[in-house]
Amino acid sequence: MIEDEHGLRFTGLAVGYRRTSVHTGLTGRARRGELTVLVGPNGAGKSTLLRTLACLQPPIAGTVRLDGTDLAGIAPMERARRLAVVLTDRVDVGLLSGRELVAIGRHPHTGPSGRLGPRDLAVVDDAIAAVGAGHLVGRRVAELSDGERQRVLTARALAQEPGLLLLDEPSAFLDVAARVALLGMLRDLARERHMGVVVSTHDLELALRLADHVWLLDRTGLRCGSPEELVVNGAVAAVFDTPALAFDPVSGTFTLADGSAGRPALVVAEQPHRALAARALARAGWRVVPTSPADAQIEHIGGDRFVVRHAGRITTVESWAALVAWARRVPAPQPTAAAMAAGTEER
Amino acid sequence: MTPRRAWLLPVLGAVAGLLLVPAVALGPISIPFGDTIAVLVGGEPSDPRWTVLIGTVRLSRAITAVLAGAALGVAGLTMQTLFRNPLADPYILGVSSGASLGVALFLATTTAAAFGATFGTGLVGLGRVGAVGAAAAGAFLVLAIVLALSRWVRSAVTLLIVGVMVGAVTSAVVSLVLVWTDPRIAQQYVVWGLGSFDATSGRDLQIFAPIVLAGLLVAGALGKPLNALLLGQGYATSMGVEVRRTRLVVMVAAGLLAGGVTAFCGPVAFIGIAIPHLARLLVGTSDHRLLLPATALVGAITALLCAIASHPPGTETVIPLNVMTSLVGAPVVIAVLLRARRSEVVT
Is B227 on the interface with A (CB under 8 A)? Predict the structure, then answer.
């Protein structure tokens, strides 16, 4: 079988600083056209690995190849035409406008004067359009919000026309909606431009939902594979589970470990009411089960109204607040059971 | 937001050109503007003595001011970008304290008898040649030490601290030298420290002008890498900038500019730190390709104004240059920056 040389491939990589290597023997790849997400707990060395792949710090051992070329062996300008980064570094660029910042990304393509030709200007416009930052770039970078600045910095990286884009924690300061939007956008960019995109994040749920390929990094090393593979073979659990917290493959979220406690309840409702009711009950210490028998049955009867059957009594609650209040009033056998099993409902 | 104003460059150039006339015309003996222009374009004034006055004193003073203002402004700008610090100035690498040490040592080791005749007239004649040479030697010695140390320094912040520390040591040695010398010699040192554009002769300009022009040329070619450095070392490296080499070139250029000015004019305060900020606000961008020439021109204009103001027309009074630059200039800059703060963000 012929080795596919497209994209990023690193073998036997040891990363770290001078005398102390953080990791040794790391091997992995990131294909063009795919979104690769590097995920791991804080302090696992995600930034160190990304900085090494970006040649911002030398590897202690091993090689990094991009489309078959050893990145350590090519001139910095040539490398900058193949690989671009979005870092966590504070960006304080004085009086630059968003467009001027994106244009700086043309650095490895322009002559000594830095003058932009017609093609450079077209690439800049295209990069701005690709991240949907057209309405932002007329403003000063200093006036943008974190999420807006992240978009402009991503456009700057795209203006380098790289074959590989590395982003270090680009979503760290973004709210949940903006995180999903950003990762979705990066996945689309990878597809449309047939470009490798590697993003580091500590948001495992997001990574497993949106990544084509996952690099799972913890202190013991790197595990690579599709998100599904890594969940099923237990790699995710090995890296992230603690005695108090477990990853639930079905819902794709973390649950507090004692989700099995609590009295069984059956929810009869269409989605999303079923999931929401299950979540509310779980918060109050109930365990939602897919089928009878159950101590209680909660049935959605339209609007925000539910019929509750419990201990031989039938009650109608008229609102979500009333349902939550009922669930709390009728405690599970263990009053302190923190069964916040947010996603133990059957799908 | 202030738009980018490239059209201001020719305007600033014209203002600087026009200011040359009053700078040459005004002084203890004021020459009519018409006759000044006549002499400047090679014609005959109505009083032949004016040709001599302009040729020997006034023109070299004005040209010195233009060169020194441009040099200090540009050196300050490159230091502010290199160290990503709006408070950086051309002397941040210890150049002025090095020059001060050279002058202090020169004054202390030259016996009072050797140039006792020149007392009261400042450092002129034989004393002048020696002082310029000593200042240049001191400036470049300290610059060489900082450059040598910079080889082992990764971060710009550490380098900044190294520069400040070397400067502090040098200043301490200056104080020590002054304690051990004749108070009259210490007095000479103080006068040198007040700065002056007046003492530069036509012969001095033959050395001073090439130094400054060389420094300006080198700095002028640095627009592109300095733009990349606005984003910090990490991003600059990722765009193909060889940061250490660029840093060395920037430091040599700034050392040439600031060292040259200090040797011939003394440690001229304020212009180097403030002019880049004024220029940024004027042209509305931090793009060095526009900002470098703008800073040179605004520096030249400011220095010309200070040169004119330090010789109130029609009087014998000479106000020390640093009094003019600091006392008048600094409040103006504060006012401009505060006004700008209201509507926009300044570096």
Answer: yes
CATH code reported for the domain at B60-343: 1.10.3470.10
Give the residue from A85, A104, A106, A154 with the most B CB atoms within 10 Å of its CB, the best one to mutate. A104
Per the CB < 8 Å rule, is A95 touching B2?
Answer: yes
Phi and psi torsions of A233, nearest 5° = -80, 5
Q: How many residues does chain A have?
A: 347
Biggest alpha carbon–alpha carbon distance for chain B: 64
The C-alpha atoms of residue A69 and residue A81 are separated, in whole angstroms, by: 13
Intervals of CATH 3.40.50.800 along chain A: 256-329
**Using CA atoms, how far apart are residues B124 and B101, in angstroms rounded to an integer?**
19
Domain A8-240 has CATH 3.40.50.300: yes
* pLDDT for residue A335: 41
Mean pLDDT of chain B: 85
Pick the CATH number of A256-329 from 3.40.50.300, 3.90.1150.10, 3.40.50.800, 3.30.450.20: 3.40.50.800
Q: Within an 8 Å CB–CB cutoff, is residue A139 touching chain B?
A: yes
The number of CA neighbours under 13 Å toward the Cβ of A289 is: 13
Residue type at position B339? R
- B-chain CB neighbours of A87 within 8 Å are 232, 234-235, 238
Nearest chain A residue to B231 by CA distance is: A91
pLDDT for the residue A258? 56
Q: Boundaries of CATH 3.40.50.300 in chain A?
A: 8-240
Reply yes or no on whether the pLDDT at A315 is more than 60: yes
**Stronger pLDDT, A176 or A192, i.e. the higher one:** A192
Probe site for chain B from A81, A107, A120 (most B CB atoms < 10 A): A107
Residue bearing tokens 């932009």: A116
